Amino acid sequence: MSNCLGKVGRTLAATTMLATFVAMPAIADTDPKAVLSTYADIALAEYEDALTTARALDAATDALIAGPSEETLGAARDAWKAARIPYQQTEVFRFGNAIVDDWEGRVNAWPLDEGLIDYVDSSYGTESDENTLFTANVIANPSIEIDGQMVDASKITPEFLSGTLQEAGGIEANVATGYHAIEFLLWGQDLNGTGPGAGNRPYTDFDRTNCTGGNCERRAEYLAAATELLVADLEEMVGNWSTDGDARKALMGGDANAGISTILTGMGSLSYGELAGERIKLGLLLHDPEEEHDCFSDNTHISHLYDVVGIRNVYHGSYTRIDGSKVEGPSVSDLVKAADTAVDVELSAKIDAAVAAFEAIAKRAEGGEAYDQQIGEGNAEGNAAIQAGVDALVDQTKSIERAVGALKLDAIAFEGSDSLDSPDKVFE
Known about the structure:
The protein is mainly alpha-helical and 428 residues long. It has helices at 7-11, 32-66, 70-88, 98-108, 158-165, 179-187, 216-241, 246-252, 256-286, 300-316, 332-339, 341-366, 371-374, 380-406, 418-421, and strands spanning 16-19, 143-146, 149-152, 318-320, 326-328, 412-415. It is globular and about 65 Å long. Mean pLDDT is 92; it is low at 5-28.
């Protein structure tokens, strides 16, 4: 077992899925600007909730560092899982919003070559033709070589992680920051393949007086820096969606129909190429547990579910916050309903069906069959459950295309995936 990225996954070329319709003004009783305002308000609320839970994670990891124990490690892991729920609902704001898409890699980049960060099992390997930092292990080494130059790594700070180590050497697999770097530090590698069990890093990896794994002081330093940086990055995105924030102004300051296209672009691209294709179908085709999104913690079923919930949030213009309050208002659904009621009914049903499919996957996982087991070779029932999720997302995307047509918007190019469009290429 090595990292969270199969070699095939690194070389897949994205294709596009087109919704081709004649550009005409949208016809609806609902004010499109009001729909954009609801969308921006939901973005702000979701990023605020992501920030709140990230701060709780930061506090929990500080407690782990101050007093390593089974209890503090468990609490930090629970805080990480809780933080994923609001954050994953924000992923629908990618693709159409350049500010979000350009920033997203800092907080949710995956897969990662974890040997860059810390010690790994011998099964991981010792070198990679694609990454000279494959086993750099910055926690063990106060200096590392990047692009032929020795780099001082004696102090692991948020600035060092974001400015030097993240995507070092221009290699995307060198993920040094964000949720998945923190996940690896809290769980360690999942060496169970498609068998039961997640990563099992001992709390003593952070215990300076009873240290396992070596370099416990620096491991704690890395964890503290990574969680501090996550909070800072989310604070930035909250600012971007606030009243005078750049993301809100970019959305609200342009043509209203272009803004509605932005919403649908995010919905369709996340649904099809990103989630159905790269995050799910690829791993199912390869039966490879290294291709799951939250591969150290076995939390993938939750991350996928809340991606789909996020799509539903923006279509219906309604988000339930972590405190139970709601942010809601005029929605894309209202626009589509006014233009073609049948399309709105169809898309609403398809979105609900997609959520139900991923609730079924989550139910299997909570019942003891983790996501990586469900995609395992020879698990016909588990494979079928995952494929049902893929099918629901593809079906949902077709109805998103119909919504684009109903609103008479310009053609939208949704993100694609060879895993869906040209699966034979996956095995080349």
